[in-house]
Protein: Transcriptional regulator SlyA
Amino acid sequence: MKPYKQFFHEYNLTYRPYVNQLNQELAEFQLYSSQWRIMHFILHNGEQTLSDIASYQKVEKPTTTKMVQRLIELDYLQSISGADKRTKLIQLTEKGLERCDQIQAKISQFQQYLLEDIPEEEQVAAARLLNHISGKISDYRKG
Amino acid sequence: MKPYKQFFHEYNLTYRPYVNQLNQELAEFQLYSSQWRIMHFILHNGEQTLSDIASYQKVEKPTTTKMVQRLIELDYLQSISGADKRTKLIQLTEKGLERCDQIQAKISQFQQYLLEDIPEEEQVAAARLLNHISGKISDYRKG
DNA sequence: TTAATTAGTTAGGCAAACTAACTAACGAAT
DNA sequence: ATTCGTTAGTTAGTTTGCCTAACTAATTAA
Structure:
């Protein structure tokens, strides 16, 4: 099989088991991986508008609205009004921040386990490859 | 950011855009990427039972049943009864086989475009890394 | 000041997955 | 040979995670 076929073959087979296991790890926090992605984004990039979150995750705004609403219900996020009165700045609550620490610890352990036998160089190279693909897809869409 | 974090970060960001674009490529054949995965599997591995398909894709049987039913409606697949009368052997129809050729050509072009700037070595290394992850996840589930 | 754009929400829909509960057929074990 | 556990596949019903269309409110540009 050609290298590019090999790669996409493995790529397809890996995603579901990974997300399923991630969801299982997150269950004790009553979170799905999609919700954790939002919290993770805010944790590392500070408060964000709903549009920021949507465009970063490359999903539509209504989808993001609902996820954020759920996270607000769980008291993991809160929204404050921005200078531009149309916007809502979404930030972590104290409880949310606390959970982030616990979740990060758990997820990091899982992720490190998955890559423990792979040299760091290769991990970085694979990350670069994926990043490259993301860029190419954006270009492809435009032109 | 640590290599393993980098990797999973990119991994998360790449999947949806990739699948979305794949679905767009497949739209002219009235297929979704999940359905194409099934056809692709049968194309490369010959006729399969429904259980084979489900366990390979790592989804539950009811999910597989419905997808295969849809592909039979489209006249891309057909099922014949196996020696074991409980089983159904799912195989490509003539029309399905024809479509596979057309789809393969289109998808290959897209996938090659995505990786055209990446040395083949790195592609293979990344495929190996993903394969390794799949294995680790299976192990993790068991123990 | 009016028109176009942007931020966010609501409503409604669909794909893709799941579990639970079922039927039918097989196989092993006494 | 009969029974009992297992496997193959289906049906029914639910949920997640995404989408588009249509809307309101606020901002920006002409």
Residues 16, 20, 49-51, 61-62, 64-66, 69, 84-88 of chain A lie near DNA strand C (CB under 10 Å from a C1'). Chain A has a mean pLDDT of 94. The longest helix of chain A spans residues 3-26. Chain A has one domain: 3-142.
